[in-house]
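Email to the structure team, subject: Acyl-CoA synthetase (AMP-forming)/AMP-acid ligase II model.

Hi all, the expression group asked for a predicted structure before they design truncation constructs. Nothing fancy, just the tokens so they can compare against earlier work. One-line instruction: predict Acyl-CoA synthetase (AMP-forming)/AMP-acid ligase II, return tokens.
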Amino acid sequence: MRATAAEISNAADSWLPEVEGETLSALLSRCGRDRGDRLAVTHLDFTENPDGLAVSLTWSDLDRRAGSVAVALRRVALDGDRAAILVPQRADYLVAFHGACRAGLIAVPLFAPDLPGHADRLAGVLADCAPSVVLTVADKLDVVGDFLVERGIEGVEVLAVDEVPDAEHEPVAQDPDEVAYLQYTSGSTKAPSGVMITHRNVVANAAQAMSAYEADPGRTPTVSWLPLFHDMGLMLALAAPLVAGTRTVLIDPVAFLEKPVRWLRALSANPGAITAAPNFAYAFCAARVAEEDKVRLRLDHVRALIDGSEPVQPAAIDRFHTAFAECGLPRKAHRSSYGLAEATVLVSASPAGAAPRRVELDREALAAGRAEPAEGPDTSALVSAGHPVDQLVRIVDQHTEQDLPPDQVGEIWVRGENVAHGYWGKPQESACTFVPDGTGHWLRTGDLGVIHGGELYVTGRIKDLIIVDGRNHYPQDVEETVEQAHPAVRKHSAAAFAVPTDDGEAAVVAVERASHLAEDEVDLDELGQAVRGAVAGRHGLAVHELVVLGPGEVPRTTSGKISRSAARQHYLTGTLRGSA
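Reply from the structure team: attached below.
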């Protein structure tokens, strides 16, 4: 399809012809056969050794163990049954996922029930997908069994993948358009939705990703601490290495949060690696990695630091690169990107070879739907998400569904081989999100963006917009102002959202107090005046209520991002406490 003024596309050199029409299972067999004794995955285990114990599987190991799990699954489940993966972040997770795919089941990447704060989400997903079997590991059998009993989930087989004996696997015939797995979206304000990702979707997106980030077949490692049950974590550690025939290095998210230098050491030890993280992680590293820990870091050979936050925050990028410039980190390694689960994960990426483009846009004009370059304090800084990777992107008026010209803000629509077809068991929701056009379908992303200077800029999510007195306010702009308003506000902790009142929509802001301050050391009146004054002065927006919480109490997603929707829901139900 030819790109119009309302579309951008990029037909860069693609890996897709090499793997088009393949399934994940067929690719694993190929790697097991052709790359047998080469490493497929190395898990750096910090639970007992602070320096990390490397536990590895070769491609033949992974191929053999996945086949054995598939044999065990075929005894207890049927084609198309769901296999829920409740495995910690280790090599066994990949074994479980590939075993489910090989058995002709639909994998459901989840997490062990002892992940703090997310038991309700896990129960909701299990109720939605109704698995016939749960895959876990021996040391989690009791935890998983107790959870299933507590939640009244019956008739489910539980299998420890690390106890499955070796067995000869007979390949199951698979079509690339069969569903490979369900990628569940956030369920903070509604029942979780499982995106149906086919083998064709995930293989295509993995090829698109490896093309975008200029990976060398068989040579470019990936390093990841992102949870494997998240779309980017699964792509980075499982799908992309499979397509590229390369290895991955896994770190547990908790190990990263305990000592973020562990991630950077893994990058230093694996030259040419591709990795990814949200904004908060880059700022977190800049703040938490000590000077003495930087001495042995060599980051000059990092191939790509993917930042897929929505939108990317320039300040976080700057802090990270300033902190690690002495380690040789090149700015061109930072690759701002855009994606979402309904597109498997990746949609666009900033061009290789240079730092992502930035623009300063007039804040008032942007809120009114226009991208107008400007200078001065009343601007919003945006980082380019680059060009689509073998996909088409349109900017559409969300009310009329008509294409908008460049420099007009609208909803981002996406089309490509990587775009899923719908949500598990939700035909009405699927029909609203995946729009047919006669020859295929477009994905309505729910994200706002603009094409400026031939590149895509993500401005926010439609559902997160704060609309007060007929004016639009982007929450990330308000949050940045709040975090700079007073030193008692903890960085990267603010959540701004709109709530209904008798007088219409109003703005509420939840923040955490700085971690070095006790509750009685914060002058709430002073803090409230500073925040309200800053937001009113810079945005012309009155803060209806400021909620001040302790460190770590603002709701976050399972990947550590602030969840505005969950904060709003907790506020409306009265479970956000404290105010100024």
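The radius of gyration is 23 Å. Residues 436 and 452 are 27 Å apart (CA to CA). Ping us if the truncation boundaries need rechecking.
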